[in-house]
Amino acid sequence: MQNSTPPPTKRSRVDKYLDKVIWLMFALLLAMATLTGVIIGIRTKQDGTDIWYMRPTESNPYYNPQKAAIVGIVGFFNGLVLYGYLIPIALYVSLEVVRVAQALFMINDIEMYDPASDKRARVKSPGLNEELGQVDTIFSDKTGTLTSNQMDFFRCTIQGVSYGKGTTEVERAAEKLGMPLGPSPRDPRPDSTRPTSRTQSVDNAIEVDTESLGPENNPYKEKGFNFYDERLLAGKWVQEKSAESIRFFFEILALCHTAIPEGTPEEPSLMRYRAESPDEAALVVAAKQFGFYFYKRTPTTLHVRESLRPGDPPRDQVYQLLDVLEFSSLRKRMSITVRFPDGRLLLLSKGADSVILQRVDRKRSGPVAETTRHLKLYGEVGLRTLVVAYKVLDEEEYKSWAKRYADARSIIGKERESRTEELAEEIEQGLTVVGGTGVEDKLQAGVPEAVDRLARAGINIWVLTGDKVETAINIGYACSLLRQGMDNLIVSLEGSEARAIEERADREGWSRDKIQEGQKNFVSRKLDDALQLVLNGHVNPRGTSTSERKISVSESLQSALSRSMSTKSSGANLSRNASKNAAGTLTRNLSVTNGRHSRNPSEGKIGVEMLPLVDGQKVGSNGEGLDQREWAISKESALTQSRKGPPAEPTEYALVIDGQSLAYILAETVLQERFLEVCINCNSVLCCRVSPRQKAQVTTLVRKGLGLHRLCLAIGDGANDVGMIQAANVGVGILGVEGAQAAMAGDFAIGQFRFLERLLLVHGRWCYRRISLMILYFFYKVCMMGWIAFYSNIFAYFSGNPLYNDWYASFYNTVFTSVPIVVIGILDQDVTPAEAFRYPQLYQSGQRGELFNFKLILWWLAISLYHSAVIFFFPLAIYSGLSAFRPGGQVAAAQDFGAAMFTVLVLVPNLQIYLAFHYFTWIHHLFIWLSILSWYLFIIVYGALPTSWSTIAYKEFIEVLAPSASYWLLQPLVVMAALLPDLVFRSIKSVYRPSDYQIVIEQSKSKRDSQHQV
Amino acid sequence: MATGGGDFLRKLQKEEEIQQRLSKESRRPKYTKFSQQELSACKPLLTPMCIVFVYIAIGLACIPVGIITLQASLSVVELKFRYDTICVMKYATATNPMLTDEAKSEFMQDYNKRKNCTISIDVTKYMKQPIYIYYQLGNYFQNHRRYVKSMSERQLQGLPPSKVDLNNCKPQDMVGGRVIVPCGMVAWSLFNDTFDISTNAFYTEEGTLFVNKTAISWKSDREERFNNTIFPSSNFVNNNRTTVVNASQIGGSYLNNSQPLSMDENLIVWMRIAALPTFRKLYGRIETDLHPGTTLTFNINNFYNTYGFRGSKALILSTTSWIGGKNHFLGFSYLIVGGACILIGFIFLFMHCKNPRPLGDKSYLSWVKKSVATAISTSPTTM
């Protein structure tokens, strides 16, 4: 709404290219017509009055030696009309028809129907269908697009015991891709702290009771809660060893937040919480599920209804809320001070592990190591993690602090913030860790697979989100945008190094301008470093180990870019390490990247294992070796740095950048260019904390900056994505539950993100193929008419006398040759959807524009030149009028030649279809043969009309052509002679330079054959 | 342009939505093989063995056809001689040595001069009747737009010509307020040389060979296109040597006013426009076999002026076969195409045996090739 701009008119790249080609054809037409005019003018002038049978002395625009110029001009216009077939006007109509049909296929695709919202795909701009087959870059919104914007409490760790079964989306995705994520936290075995004897029996008991229950069939599941572990649910937690701690943990969950309950306290199942973020609400819901039902908030009290055991009557507890130290993206934690009903005075905290763990009390730290380990694992499987901690407050100390805090809060002005900040810092020290939580920001179904396949299809995926850097990175991992083994380049003004600038500015009292200057320089330097790394990283010979290479990068980079530098150090103190390492905000990311290394026991040998590439080369001609190589490569793109060792591809990079940095970049051309260059070399780009306006700006920047060669698609669900959707070459809206603005603004609309995969890899690819083939074929066939008109003119004094009457010509483009190509434009396929998904790389042919480019246009023009020559001169040899073409001694006249030639002119392009295309249903066969038949029917029916109608076609077929053997012998001859060179070329190509398509088809065919044999 | 389809779709989708909302049915698309694009289809693959098979099969089919066709056209006997120059050179005098086209043309335009000539040719091969007689004109643009248009199809049908027709017929449209029949320059420029043939052999009485000049046109032309109720009138006014004195050109025949158009087969043949500037037209046919050793003597009335525009005139006698006249094109083409196919077929067979490509070999996939290439060269690549 606020960003509404009039929807831009978008035209597809193919369309724009087509325009250029049409102009070219127009130039050619003009040239040919001019040549015609000049020649007829000169000849008329030269021959003068000699040609008495033309009555040269009488004034006539077609032959008048006295006014040869006029003859020339008339000849020119005649030529324009005659060769006008070169301009395929019918193409536009056919394209329109075909695109609508393609759109109908998309709309009616069951695979793109979303049963949840009962919505089909929608197509608003069928003119952009083929763009879907050429997308290079996808700009995706995050919330509501990649994720369903629903946070579910999924796991927790309490006193060093990890609870929660079930599989996260990320794990499922990883498993599907054949890459188990190491020791999974859902498997409780590694937790040595777990008391064995008692819980084991409990476990067994539960198994008997609730056989059918499990993470997949969770009776407790509700919005915000997808946790299953029989040890904690249904009041069973009281039997756990550390029941007291567990109780305390739940209490903290129920208390330490700023959510407001909405609903009646008597109906817990209908209670909704309005919280700052959905994950906060998820924690409160979790507390409710565990028996600590938070139902009322007053400014000074928090009301919780405890029901510890299923049988026990619920107990209402009132906690005195003293202070709230609110959450901010800078603090990354929130705390409250609260007095428990039993009189204890406590500080309850929850926050990012990086910040909380720094503030832990050395002596009573709680289960730090275990918690850290668990949270690291949670992070790896894509959960958003928080550490939960507390501190017992000393009454006196608190009193003095509370007074100062109240004072600070009453300050009006700039100082207030820093003052309260300081005081919060003061009291949030000496914490004791209780445990941690893992909340899943649920991805939409199928997103990781879709993203992975899209990435393998060679599409760069950018996520533009309003979220903070950390969240974005998490989601990046969750939907396999960021992959193990990728280097993450991070440009953020939230990092500690960047914050140092602010701090220094504060200290030295810099002016606003100067701060900005400093920040800009910082961003610029970061970009520079990133660029160097990206470029050098590519040229770097693979023999050297990754760590060596990275060490050589400049110091600032080292500290700023989050990479797996500190790999070799032990995993346990990593987070601390990392936070010291300056990229403070990015600890979690670091821990994730590092997770790969620590998880992979062979990490140390990385340098050695870099060599399988060489192996692959050695095996060379051996088929198995090749297969393996291919496997390795596809696996590689499938995000594995598997145990087999890292594959040969250059390191992949991902750029993570925040909105503030983007603002500086967008403001300056130099930075824009540098930014673009970095982005081109990155497989994924994450833009965090960007405004809707920036989303559009970035999209425009990339679209314009990368020029025609790159095609951008934007996908989003909300009003804030409208700008981006409009700015991209193709906009796709998600038909969300709420708001249809994105869907309205988009050129296409789908119900789920995962449909994008089918939209691009199947429909897009097909549409691109269909439209390309169609345009090329159209040029081929109309050009033949043009060339033939020119050939016949050569023999007719360039006077522009057509060999056949207008009806033949107009039926040529509307009846005899028009339908089969439209059928192809609607139905053609190369590989099946299953094969397209199996080999997403096939999509790259669209990005490279392999099916529609100047070379191909020239090729088809060359074919049309050759075909037209065969079509014209072969019949001419028989119907020249210089020898009888029938036993009756008759020689052919112009109309006989014209009709015979037209026969093959209909045959050749129709049969060329069988050569040039590879997919034929009964519909194809029907229309090809109907088209051919229609010519014979036409010439029979038209020839039977009275002569004043049919003129030169009168009884042409029945009387003149059909009874002669030469006519029937001519047709197969011309067809063979015309198609032979093309056939030879295609044979050679298919044998020695097969297309990807052919290999894939061959494979599935041989697979089918072998199945038949079995 | 692109909006047209978009509008249509938008309307369609909206209607569908409203309907479904009303009916409260699920909007799940119906499954048909067609709508889900799952029609069974054949996907022909050019596999090496099928390529070899296709080529050799084509070749084997073409060669016999070529041989038979070539044989047919080789059996045709054709005699041809050009007479235009010879016929005027006969009249060369000291004052007009007929050295230039202009001189010849000038001679032709003189109505008072005799222009007949006699030419003899020997039959060298047995010619089985019917033997077709053609005249051939060279560098004559019957297919010039100006010329082609100058006639009225309606008039030939017996209908009054349209205004457009008449305009196209100019200047041969009207004379003395009456419409010329048939109007236009095509009819006006009708070829008017005549040929009488005599022979030394005693096939017929008096040594003349009967030339049948009927049924030399298409049946539909003489029976339907040219009406038998239409009689020529005022045709060829300008060139009629009895009525016009200052005619500057010679050529064109005076039509018999008492004979309907449909009877004038010469005109009918002439008015079927030739495709090329060099063309033959059927003149008549000899319905007697000619034996080697026979000498044919042609008495030619050389009226038609082709000298002014560097044209040529020739006379042709030809037999026919089932395929037509003497034209080896079809036969040779079939042989060449067939031969080429077989050759290519064997080349492919050879190449396939020597260096086969296993079907579905993944190393040919472009992305595999690319990664191998980059791996080998270790050169920088994007992505």
What's a quick, concise take on this entry?
Chain B: It is found in: Membrane. Chain A has 1014 residues and is α/β, with parallel strands linked by helices.
Describe this structure as you would to a colleague.
Helix content of chain A is 52%, strand content 12%. In chain A, β7 (292-297) and β8 form a beta hairpin. With 1014 residues, chain A is α/β, with parallel strands linked by helices. The model of chain A is unreliable at 182-211 and 538-648 (pLDDT under 50). Chain A is built from 39 helices and 20 strands. Chain B folds into 2 domains: 46-76 and 324-356; 78-319, no CATH class. Helices cover 35% and strands 14% of the residues of chain B. Chain B contains 12 helices and 10 strands. In chain B, β4 (174-175) and β5 form a beta hairpin. Residues 238-247 and 378-383 of chain B have low confidence and may be disordered. At the A-B interface, α3, β1, α15, α21 and α22 of A face α1, α2, β3, α5 and α6 of B.
Structural class of chain B: alpha+beta
- Overall pLDDT of chain A, averaged? 77
**Main sheet overview of chain B:** 5 strands, antiparallel
Portion of residues in beta strands of chain B equals 5-15%
Number of extended strands of chain B = 10
Distance between the termini of chain B: 38 Å
Q: Could you give the topology of this structure?
A:
The complex is a heterodimer of chains A (1014) and B (383).
Chain A: H1 13-47, H2 68-83, H3 89-107, E1 122-123, E2 137-141, E3 147-158, E4 161-163, H4 169-176, H5 197-209, H6 243-255, E5 260-262, E6 272-274, H7 278-289, E7 292-297, E8 301-306, E9 315-325, E10 333-339, E11 345-351, H8 353-358, H9 368-380, E12 383-392, H10 395-410, H11 415-427, E13 432-443, H12 447-456, E14 460-464, H13 469-478, E15 486-491, H14 496-508, H15 512-539, H16 546-551, H17 555-560, H18 574-580, H19 587-599, H20 606-609, H21 612-619, H22 623-637, E16 652-658, H23 659-667, H24 669-680, E17 684-688, H25 692-705, E18 712-716, H26 722-727, E19 730-734, H27 741-745, E20 748-750, H28 755-794, H29 806-816, H30 818-827, H31 833-838, H32 844-847, H33 854-878, H34 894-916, H35 922-944, H36 947-950, H37 956-961, H38 965-992, H39 996-1013
Helix pairs in contact in A: 1-2, 1-28, 3-28, 3-30, 6-7, 9-19, 10-11, 12-28, 14-15, 15-24, 18-19, 21-22, 23-24, 23-25, 28-30, 28-33, 30-35, 33-34, 33-38, 34-35, 34-38
Chain B: H1 2-23, H2 48-74, E1 78-82, H3 84-89, H4 101-108, E2 116-122, E3 131-138, H5 145-148, H6 153-157, H7 163-169, E4 174-175, E5 178-179, H8 185-188, E6 194-199, E7 211-212, H9 219-225, H10 265-271, E8 279-286, E9 295-301, E10 312-318, H11 329-354, H12 366-377
Antiparallel strand pairs in B: 1-10, 2-9, 3-8, 3-10, 4-5, 6-9, 7-8
Helix pairs in contact in B: 2-11
